[in-house]
């Protein structure tokens, strides 16, 4: 079974949005409300629109999603050198609330090519979501050694620093981002994040 690219890119987009929302908003309840408001209407997230539905987790992954995961796993097992398929599977695992499993596959890609800033940022996201902020920072910084102009990575570094309580460094990172990428959406996000510090 082949998965439509719209689902792949949609999943990646959702992960990026979740990453930014988590980093941009320090208040916990506001985060949950914002996440539900921006949740996509797909098989993974459809039931979560209901305010009485359980929080997302590995226990409420739909049967269809499980089937898709099985098919993707077979494709990865059949061609273990296809990093695009591995990435697709890891992203889907992450969206299906299986971050530890996703991490294994992201690390598999890094073993094949250690200079993948996209994979380093995905790993940073996993560590951040597990509240391991030091590891998240380590992987964001690694991605910036490969691509120092990755505005998402720069923003996320500031967000991690703010989460760790180093608001002054976070402000410096975000101000630098605003100077380097004026007029962009990420610069606007950095500006609003500075205002919330």
What is the overall number of helices? Answer: 10
Gross geometry: elongated
Strand content: under 5%
| Strands, count | 0
Q: Describe the sheet with the most strands.
A: none
Order of secondary-structure elements: HHHHHHHHHH
How much is the radius of gyration in Å? 17 Å
Structural class: mainly alpha
User: Ends: how far apart?
Assistant: 47 Å
Poorly predicted runs are 24-39
Percent range for helical residues?
A: over 70%
Rounded mean pLDDT score = 80
Write the layout of secondary structure elements.
Blueprint (H helix, E strand, L loop, with lengths): L4 H20 L3 H10 L25 H16 L4 H13 L3 H14 L4 H13 L3 H14 L4 H13 L3 H14 L4 H12 L1
Helix pairs in contact: 1-4, 1-8, 3-4, 4-5, 5-6, 6-7, 7-8, 8-9, 8-10, 9-10
Summary keywords:
197 residues; mainly alpha; elongated
How would you describe this structure to a colleague?
The N and C termini lie far apart (47 Å). The protein is an all-alpha fold. The chain is built from ten helices and no strands. Helix 3 (63-78) runs antiparallel to helix 4 (83-95).
